[in-house]
Amino acid sequence: MQPPCPFCDIIAGKLPAGIVYRDEHCCAFLDINLVNPGHVLVVPIRHASGLADLDEPTGAHLFTIARRIAKAQRTRLPECRGVTLLLADGKAAGQEVFHVHLHVIPRRENDGVRFQRGTVHGTQAEQDKLTVIANMLTGCLSGDTRE
Predict the structure, then answer these.
(1) Residue 92 contacts by C-beta under 8 Å, 6 or more apart in sequence?
(2) Catalytic-residue membership of 103
(3) Residue tagged active-site, from 39, 99, 101, 103
(4) Total-model pTM
(5) Tens digits of residue pLDDT in 75-133
(6) What domains does the chain contain, in order, with CATH numbers?
């Protein structure tokens, strides 16, 4: 049995939410723990704990709707000067609710919001290491999972 999912409860109407968009594939609602006013979460209707559980058409649709919401934020929110899209996949990435969700965060000039870089970004990698990693990922993406 799956633990209770607050996003599934919002989708089912069991929890209140400021719904800004809904169709047969996704639901978008205001984040209760907002970074800035107008912060929206776009989630698939069908529960998917992480990206690996999400089918490609639904994943693409989430980004399509996020793009439309970002355009609305820039148009309708007077202080919005930019938009940050954020999707954390897994506990190590900072995911707290294990139902895929794409944050669409309106940004203001000097809003004080900072996304900290970890040690992965702290040093510049050598080109030969980048090539090895790129080849590993390319092989996986093309269906070849050999190392």
Answers:
(1) none
(2) no
(3) 101
(4) 0.82
(5) 999 899 999 999 999 999 999 999 999 999 999 999 888 876 544 434 455 777 767 77
(6) 6-110 (3.30.428.10)
